[in-house]
Amino acid sequence: MLYTVTLDGRSWEIEIDDDGLRVDGEPVEAALTSIPGTDLHALRVGAASHRVVAGRDGAGRWRLNVDGRPAEVEVVDERTLRLREMAGAAGAADGPRPVKAPMPGLVVKVEVEEGQPVAEGQGIVIVEAMKMENELRAAVPAVVARVLVAPGDTVEKDQVLVELASPDGDDA
Known about the structure:
The chain is mostly beta strands. The protein contains one helix and 17 strands.
């Protein structure tokens, strides 16, 4: 399985398969052991050992504390990355675009309301497709112009779920 892990604006490609673990194509010897009943994990990378406390902070986002140092990390699998690209979440620097369903699915949660300002990367809608929840996020800072779906709605591929407007009031 291939993942993209982002920490402090820097990303790594992590591949895990039967042959082991590779970070940006380089083999890495590592093991992660969870402590039952807690958020505590023991991480060994090479000869070094680390104490890690991990907690989910939304879809694909984690709050970590590694050896006493806090960190926020985003972990995205290759399927979710492709969905984001299909939804237009990547490279939309020319202004807000409507949030569209990347494939047919079911709206699980609407995380915004009309008139609400949203930051780049902020969750807008969670859609369940193929038994996986996909959080669709704002590609750029914007203001929610219209929410066109509600939890429980069935949506089709490319259906507009939420319309966004430029935060400065200009049409985008």
